[in-house]
Every structure is written in C-alpha cells, then in structure tokens.
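Two entries, shown back to back:
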Amino acid sequence: MKRKIPRIGDIIEMQTPKGLAYAQYTHKRPLYGSLLRVLPGLYARRPDSFKELVASKERFYIFFPLGAAVSRAIVTLVDNEAVPLWAQEFPLMRKAGGIDRSGKVLNWWLWDGKREWRVDCLSQKQKELSVAEVWNDTLLFERIVEDWSLQDEG
C-alpha cells in the first residue's frame, strides 16, 4: 500500500525484535486518537492474506499515534480488511482513577467511548478490559514482544 493516511480497517505492520506484529485500526476518538486492535502472534514474514488473522480475537486494544507513526515510517500500512462485527462497536475500556504514593490504583473508571463511570474495584471480567491509554511505538512494541496481557495492568 502506498497510502500514508490511515483509514478504518487498515492493517498495520510493526517490525519488532522478535518478528512482525500486526494490528488493525478500528476507531478514532478526539482526545485519544487512533484505536488499534493488537492482533495475536509474531511472524517471520508478512502473511499472504490477513483475512484469517483479522478474524481472530485481538490481544488488546490501545490508542496509538498512528498518523505520525505512518508518516515517520515507524509502522507500515499493509492492507485493509473489514473490521469484524464484534469489533465495530467501541469497546468498553478501563482507566486508572486515584493512585496512591506507592503507585497502587485506588479506583477505576469504565468508559464506553461516550460516557464514564467509576468503580472502586475491578471484577475479574473488568480486569480483562483494555486500558484507555495512548502508547508510543516503543511501549507498544515492548509490550507485544514481552507477551504483555491485560491482567498485568490491573
């Protein structure tokens, strides 16, 4: 793909120290920017087709400065696929609320893309929600390579 302006459905290729990783651009929010579905696996070479990979369950969602990363050739747009039905609706996400001096999160906010509400303690199911944060390429690549999971954040 020669295009430099990301569109919903674009597949993003990321060169990590352990191989190629992929994500799909699914949503855009004014305060956060581009939301990516980080797809499972690391690859020695680019797949011939992304249909199967896009149909798989994402590892997590994360906001990412996609336009800047594409224009600086930090990531590459390699294809565009329809966003799966389950991923077309904005995902429920969590944000840390109060944090004590030791760094412990005291409460959380849940966010559905439109409204927020506070919860004192996350349920097990809520610990599986993606975090509403913006990550740069260094952190995103590091988390992919480390096989980071959502439970690591809660």
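entry 2 starts here
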Amino acid sequence: MNGRPRFDRRRPEPGLRINHRIRVPEVRVIYEGEQLGIMSPGKAIEIAQHKGLDLVEISPRAIPPVCRIMDYGKFKFEEAKKKRAQKKGQSTVGTKEIKFRPKTDEHDLDFKTKHIRRFLEDGNKVRLVVVFRGREMAHPQMGKVVLDRVVERIGDIATLEVSPNMEGRAMFAIIAPRPGVVQKAQAAKKAQADAERAAQLAKKDAKARQQQQEDDELDEDEINAGIEDDDGDDLDDADDPN
C-alpha cells in the first residue's frame, strides 16, 4: 500500500484542505467522476492512499463537504499552468511618459517620435511632457509648439486625449492610440515574421539546390579518380587502346 504521512505538511491553496487537514465528521467522495458515497474522512483518506492519491476538499460549504480523490501535485501544476497561460494572454497596457525641452532639435524629436509610435502600437497611452527651466517659463508657447509638432507627426495613429496644459514647471498632453492601431501593428509584425521565416527557408533551399548542383557537376574522371581495374591498371588506362 502506498501510504502518506499522517500529518501532511504540504501547503494547500487558500481555502483548500487536503488529507488530514480535512476535519469534519463525514464527506461526500468523488473519484474519476463517480460518487463513492458519504463516509468519514479517515476512510476516504485510506482509499486515496491505497490508490497513491490525495483526498482534496473541493466544496467545503456543501452538506456534507465534497471531496475528490486526485493527484494534488498534478492538480497544482495544471492550475499554475492555466494561470501562466491567462497571464501570457493579457497585454499590459499603461501610460508611458516622454519628456522634451522647449528647444528640442529635429534629431531628438525624430528619435522620440519613433518610441512614441512603438508605445502606441503596443496599446499604451503616452504622456508628452515639455520641461521648462529658468527664463523659459516666460515663453510657455514654445512648449505648445513642441507638443503640436509631436502630435502632428503621429496623428495617423494617435488621438489627442488631453490638450496641452501647464502643470507647475511643465506642460503636458496625453495621446492615445486610434481604434485598430494595435491590431494593425500586430498583423504587420506577424507578416514581417512570416516573411523572414519564408526568406530563411528560401535561402536554405537555394543553398541545398546549389550543393546538389555542384555534386551533379562532378565529372566522371573526378569520380573515378584513384580506382583501378581488376588487372591493377587505372580505369582511364584500360579505356586507352594504346
């Protein structure tokens, strides 16, 4: 009999009791979809141990509580796997922040605009901030000019959610991706990945064809080089009447 220790030290999930942690007078037991009836936890644990499994309380509020005989380790593994899959399927969307200066040059503007596009295509909102220093505070319109230039450059994929506004020593605006932008970006990335895979396969196939062609072009003399006939003469000499 494959038994378990009397006191199971494994930590169950919150609200989930197993084996000797189940302390009620009687339980309803289920095994592989079939009901084994109502019995004491001790007897149910004995059955579970005989099968090399665990008794797991799945409905503690039922009268009597419902328990299932199962592999608790495997159950936890499958639950963790499901949670990872769900987490993987969820996209983390938030608000990114990009800072500028009132006299941001074209190169810096182009560089930051590319990052803004990437953030928007990932589904994020972007907070655009122009930071003023010293005497620059006397010319807030310079900050608005910078924000307007940025918004104009990404207007094809973004909408202005919060118009330029002063906040202390900074002017900010918030932009959000237009409907369909994220889906379109994902489709473009998939198409690019497919094209790269196709190019790699084509390159590999071309290399294989080239190798095959080189092998086919070996002339007969090169193939037969060093091979002698039965008399010990080279095959080329055997074909020579002289």
